[in-house]
Amino acid sequence: MNNLEVKVCVCSSCVMKGAMDIIDSIENLNEVRDITHLNCNIEIKPVKCIGFPNHGKKSPIVQIGDSIIENANMETVMSHIMALAD
Amino acid sequence: MRGIYTPLTRLRRQVFTAIAKMAYEDDVDYVQRIEEIPYEIVPGEKAHYRDDIFKERAILGERLRLAIGLSLYPVDRPSPISKGVKESAIAEKVYEPPLINVIPFACDACEPKALEVTSNCRGCLAHPCTSVCPVKAIAIKDGRSVIDKEKCIKCGRCKDTCPYGAIIQYDRPCAAACGVGAIESDELGRAKINYDKCVSCGMCLVSCPFGAIADKTQIFQLIQSIKKGDEVIAAVAPAFVGQFGPLATPDKFKKALSELGFSDVVEVALGADLGAIEEAHHYVNKVVNGEDPFIGTSCCPSWSVMAKTHFPELASYISGELTPMVATARIIKKERPNSRIVFIGPCAAKKLEASRRTVRSDVDFVITFEELMGMFVAKGVEFGEIEESEPIDDASSAGRGYSVAGGVADAIEKTVHELYPDVEMKIDRAEGLKECEKMLRLAKAGKRNGYLLEGMACPGGCVGGAGTLMPIRKAVKEVDKFKKSASRQSAMQNDYCDEADQLK
Predict the structure, then answer these.
(1) Which of A62, B11, B388, B493 could form a disulfide with B488 if both were Cys (CB 3.0 to 4.6 A apart)?
(2) Closest CB to A12 among B9, B246, B382
(3) Which residue from B minimizes the CA distance to A11?
(4) Quick check: A28 contacting B, CB < 8 Å?
(5) How confident is the model at residue A1 (pLDDT cuts 50, 70, 90)?
(6) Which residues contact B43 (CB under 8 A, 6 or more apart)?
(7) Partner A contacted by B87 (CB < 8 A)
(8) What is the dihedral of CA B116, B118, B124, B128, to 10 degrees?
(9) Does A16 touch chain B (CB under 8 A)?
(10) Which residues have CB under 8 Å from B36's CB, separation 6+?
């Protein structure tokens, strides 16, 4: 099974704007792998900063593989991951 | 919604950040600034969340006022958002009851309790829904079930019997979250809080899907006090660990708070240790010998106020020991009498507890983790950039467990075993005010004699409080880790054990 690395920025601004809830939703995605036919293992890495510091207006920032999602939320992150699964 | 980050969570936190930022700025015209903020949070000409951008900004105006500690402004009279703001820029708490407020025009006036037939109804031939209705409120019209709301008594039998699950029953979300039945309706059908019943747990404000309920904050005045140069000391509730993200390890917390202007940080788990010891003695000396039928824990203010007001005949059995917050504040003030104490916790009700006559001089400000996060962001404090580590080591593993449901009883039980190895304890506990009430009803009926009763108003305990940021299961893990890292395991090893009596 492939590994899919998802980096989630956990700077103050990203945490305030729900970074940990995004991490929670990705973890949940791992748990429902049987139903979603997601054929990769998602590895979540909370990181100090993605991009430049003080990116408050773009928080939360999430990096999935090579693509960076700004103003991420559970919805956009999960749909991005699910699109990779297809 | 508690536990899920939604656009409303975002708005609430943006307000805290904006107020903190404004407070930290020097030479700012607060009156002008506060009128500008709604245009920054809700920019442009098109509505973002609701049907109308003007309404969005008006609601934000109310939230800003509450965040400053001011009351809502009247809708039916000319009154600018900025009214009273300048006068509130003082280094003292500004608080006028009530703490928890419904912003009336933000409320969607959803029905208090209703049964609805959904589109899943197929108008089946059997239509058992009509057969089971005791008041003939449901009938088949145009091939579908229709409920006559005038007649419906909301018994829910139609819902239970429908083979397609086509009938749903819902409670108004704020009322469903309220464990004491304090949510009523005003003349326009909007939610209204009955303050005789409300115990300020804050569950309604994190449960309203329209973001119509908010509590008052003290961040504006706290920052004024910091700017004035007061010796401001943070007393942090045991639930703080993990709340600010994985980079915010406890050993970085002191430095982060010093960047905000705090002079020092003390764990409230310290006061929890003392409380556990006192309540252990109390249990053995009063309950075991039958003098009192049971003892209810004292630490959760919503639980203890609910118990005392809803069950006045049981009031004297709810422990009168100092709460961890007050004990900790008194220990700090004894050593540093000129300091100002800020309780930082997950809890809305502590704001009220700190305003009580007997506690007012001990605790100067109360803010929540969510509000503190707003301060971190406003000041640009990054845990990832903090190199130094300064361990926090005020309390034992027992006191640190107070933040999770079951942890208070655990701490007391451990202490009882240490002090009175022969005593067998009986323990019951409840989380969520509805469950707490059920437990008290059993106690009232004499079915909990000889018990220690742990009451926690928030489901999950303090880590599930209205002012938290972290998903509960993550928070519980972090608390556990922090407990294990404590240099002392037993409450009895706390340095201040012998001082408990002098604090009262």
Answers:
(1) B493
(2) B382
(3) B382
(4) no
(5) low
(6) none
(7) no
(8) -30
(9) yes
(10) none
**C-alpha torsion angle, residues B401, B300, B456, B453 (rounded to 10):** 90
DSSP assignment of A19-85: HHHHHHHHHHHHHTHHHHT--EEEEEEEES-SSSS--GGG-S-EEETTEEESS--HHHHHHHHHHHH
One-letter amino acid of B383: F
CB contact under 8 A, B381 and A12: yes
Per CB-CB distance under 8 Å, the chain A contacts of B10 are 17-18
Handedness of CA B453, B458, B463, B468 (dihedral sign): negative
Q: How confident is the model at residue B75 (pLDDT cuts 50, 70, 90)?
A: confident
Domain topology for B113-171? Alpha-Beta Plaits (3.30.70)
pLDDT tier at B226, thresholds 50, 70, 90? very high
Q: Is B380 on the interface with A (CB under 8 A)?
A: yes
Residue B417, both tokens: 């075993």
Does the CB of B368 have a partner CB in chain A at under 8 Å? no
More confident residue, B167 or A36: B167
Domain ranges of chain B: 7-109+178-220, 113-171
**Residue in A16, A19, A21 closest to B377 by CB:** A16
Q: Where are the strands (E) in B312-471, listed by range?
A: 340-345, 365-368, 426-431, 451-456
Q: What kind and span of H or E run contains B307?
A: helix B301-310
Interface test with A, best of B16, B21, B377 (most A CBs within 10 A): B377
The neighbour count for residue A55, using CB atoms within 10 Å, is: 17
| Closest residue in chain A to residue B373, using alpha carbons only | A16
On the question of pLDDT at B209 being above 70, the answer is yes
User: How many other CB atoms sit within 10 Å of the CB of residue A46?
Assistant: 17
* Domain B7-109+178-220 indexed as CATH 1.10.12.10: no
CB of B15 within 8 Å of a chain A CB? The answer is: no
Let me know if the fold of B7-109+178-220 is the same as that of B113-171: yes
Question: What confidence score (pLDDT) does residue A86 get?
Answer: 60
Question: Chain B within 8 Å of A77 (Cβ-Cβ)?
Answer: no
Yes or no, beta carbons of B377 and A12 under 8 Å apart: yes
B302 vs B309: CA distance, rounded Å:
11
Please tell me whether residue B341 adopts helix, strand or coil conformation: strand
* H or E segment and range at residue B414: helix B407-419
Interface of B with A in 238-297 (CB under 8 A): 244-248
